[in-house]
Prior knowledge:
single chain; alpha+beta; disordered N terminus
Amino acid sequence: MRDRIILTLLAFLFILASQAQTIQPIRRCATMEQDSINRLLHPQRGTLSEFEEQLQNKIKEINMRSATGRIESTTITIPIIVHVIHNGEAVGSGSNISQAQIQSQIAVLNEDYRKKLGSNGYNTNPVGADIGIEFCLSPVDEKGNALAEPGIHRYKGSQSTYARDYIDGTLKPLTIWNPNLFFNVWTLKFGGTDSNLLGYAQFPDQSGLSGLDDKGGVASTDGVVILYSSFGSAQKGSFPVMQAPYNLGRTLSHETGHWLGLRHIWGDGICADDFVSDTPTQKQASSGCPNTTLSCDNSTLAMVQNYMDYSNDACMNIFTNGQKARMLAVLELSPRRKSVYQANLCSPSVADKPIPNFTQDRSLVLLGGEVNYTDLSTNFPTSWVWTFEGGDPGTSSLRNPKVKYSVPGTYKVTLISANSIGTDTLTVDSAITVSKEGICTTTSNFKSTYTPSLLKASTVGGTKGYLTGHSSLKYTAFTESFVNALGYSYISGVKINFGLLKTAYEDSTITVTVWNARGPQGAPGSVIETKQVLLQQIQDDIQNNRLTTIYFDRVTPVFSRPYHVGVQINYDRRDSLAIISSANGENPYITAWYRTNAGLWNNYSKTLGANIALDIEPIIGVNPSTQIAASDLSVFPGAQVTLNGSGASIFVWSSDDGLVKNYTGPQLIVHPLKTTTYTLTGSGLALCDSTISTTVYIPDNVTGVEKDLKNSITLYPNPGNELLSIVIDNNYYGPLNIELFNSMSQTMKHVTQKDISSHLIEIDTHDLQSGIYFVKVQSNGVNVLKKWIKLR
């Protein structure tokens, strides 16, 4: 009996140990990591630091208005739609949570954001703030129809649990209600790598950036996601799915803070900045309910009661005045946040005619570009009449139309909204400015009035060489920065005016590079694309007095944001190269940058006093262009080169030697015998540059390779028909590689061993098409080419 009890205890302890090894610690919030993912997926959103800069400026503006008494004390109401994602359970069981549980959560949210007296959200902290924001469960849907369960949308999902990649990639876009009208909240059961997660939010977006409302973009994922068993308050009803210590509704209070622009109180680092002045700087996230934890100055207590910490629900009860200012700034700065409360869906009765209102995804549009309009009219209009001066179409009855502009100028937009009670009209003068620049163009900081110059390094303390190229200063890269104010999406290539080149090696290269402009103070940041360029190409261009045009190997996005274009050079072959710049003092802007030998980026103006612009012209567009990637740019005669096209759906090739004519397909394999330019024309998609060329060079010093051995190799009959005989008569003994090919890569290969001085190889050619072929014999590391003509 004793042994049986011991075995039972051991088994029980083993089960506990096994469970302990598989239990993951709770992750309270994944907002920051999801924000990093979102900004990688949608770089047009900008960086968090760029958003912070705009936000701090808005906070200063609000504080100044407050100090002068120009802010009216009002309560902002925000309508919520809760998407209850369930797996078919009955209402009130499992993830299909009850209406009462949802209502208890909204009650907690209002207690916390209003610092309601007598509730868990009340505090006596001197910096504790009544935020002045209230939330309601929206009584109506997107069309103004009354909801049987106010603010609740029940949705049977395709899975029992959900990870963030599926939530943001599929579930949210399928279920979201107009984020200009509703604060979208999802409740569900997390799974996979997120099975231990309580919730996450999407940060607000600042205004002034295009592309934020594109289909599949950040508008389709805007909102908050909460674990269903942490949604609501166990103090306000009997909700069996809820478990302490995250059962008092503070997960949504925390994530809503993120949705309104708040950062974690510890700044997501050790004693990092949450950009709020009246929250103590905190060493790290709190857990449990600590009351003796010190802040980073080791003299004041950490504010573990702050909703933006990780304390247990029961400990939280403080938003500060600084956090309030930050949230109110977001409600003014972020377009969707502002429109949500201005729509006034918490009081949705249709008692009046509509008040027309709309937003547009851009106010400055390129020639031939499109603008997306979004209706924000109140009082639930049922019809819309738009008039677009200068637009195509000129009128529309759609609620959210798309309009193309093809004539430069500044134009007004008129919207007439109507419902059963009446109509009203809104006219916005100068709503759209159409630039003279097209959707496909080149740009340059180098003005026509500038003086093309090759500045010596000696002007800034160097001894030899040039300021914008090889010199004793050992600068390793040179770029020109472009602000991209018109929001171009792609760069297909660049034109660079090289003023000098000296090299002893025809296969030497430089690297043309595109960087983003996210380095310190707008310096080059991450590399977006690179392209190796032969100095031989540059030398040809200089001799012919033309800019060097370089196309990139693939479609290269610049995400409608600032970028740099330039070159990277090395010093290992004693090359001497320099880019043309303006004369010193002609460029009043900071656009030219260089990288030191130590890898540090500096701009010429601030560090060297050289106010110059480099003569660099990016080839840019709203649409992508056809691109070519070559496996080699400089080869021996007859060597194989693979050319791959991209950017289009239909591809047609040709070559300037006449051997390639109207060849279709994305890939072309060639064996050039001389320097040859291959041209690709793409179609089937909206493209900026549909035709692009690349040149494969045959170095001058290898064109005579055949001469020393040509007399030892004989082809007969030539021309021939079904049988080709190859006689190799020389003193070489060993392996031979023989290849027969034409310009369209119809090829035959033969490997043999040469054991006698005069060696015969016979190749059956009756299956080959008629035309010009080349025989390449590789003997002892040397390639020899012979021409052979196949008759019918």
